[in-house]
Amino acid sequence: METVHTQGVWMAEALQKATMKYENHWLFVTHMGDPKAAFLLYFPIIYYLNKRTGIAVVWVAAVSEWLNLVFKWMLFGERPFWWVGESRLFEKNPPQVRQFPSTCETGPGSPSGHAMVTSAVWWVMVSAVASFLHSRKHSRLLTAVPYLLYVLVLVAVGLSRIFILAHFPHQILTGSLTGFILGVTLNRTVPEGRSLQFFLRSCLGLLLGALLLHYSLEHVGIDLSWSISLAKRWCSQSDWIRMDSTPFSSLTRDCGALLGLGLAQFWKPGGWPLPWAPRALCLALSSWALYHINRMPLPISPPFLFYTLYFIRFTLMPQVVMVFIPGFVHLLTAKKKKD
Fold first, then answer.
1. Can you tell me which residues bind substrate (predicted)?
2. Binding-site entries for substrate
């Protein structure tokens, strides 16, 4: 692996030198590929276009990110920003590379979570668009356009992660391939209309499964906090280390989103039948609400309090999109019709 890692570092250096003037572009792309974007950005947009596909986005994002966490704990992947210093192979010829605010993630690097979740979630979205175009236009060329976009998005997200020194190229490839397989598989089992008990069991299953794996690995002498200590040691700026990039943040985010999805369907099965204009208003209000909910600062100490509040935050988000905002808009439009 030493050769693979070394070539990955030189590739990152070459990419930074050739495209540093597009720094803001790469940072934007890596932000759009963040697993959180599936819950905060893609979910409300897709849900108000097609309810089943919107639910599928949350389902696929949560399960694929949880599996990514499990893979990372078991594969112990390095990250370029700390491996450059830890390997001590570049003392005579150090690479001319920079770190960025999005670089210093604290979890292991293999496979890439950005690539894996993006690959899974975007497959759900583009396959739905392709099916719609095929049913309306019956054109193979037009149907192929969403899949071309899919490939371009994966390439852009992968290059952005290499550019900021968050991942090696082979971690991008394995994450993208695994995410594609998960997207195809999980898209066939979307829990639309499932009972609240199903989501409670799913949430508890993910939580207890991850905790059991964590305990088992720690019990046999494997220190799963090794990546956090390396990230803190080699990150250029300490304030770039964020609690929401830790493995347990991913776990609480995924469990919270699934529970929130179940509660939303429990409170209002089937949702509200809204015309296009009220849906557009719902999207605007939901996006505004999710933006401010996500911006609310959370106390990082003690960690248990942070993870609990983080769990509650992502439990609320599906309910905001599927119940609270549509219910409010439905109430307003119903009153106008009566008047």
1. 79, 161
2. 79, 161
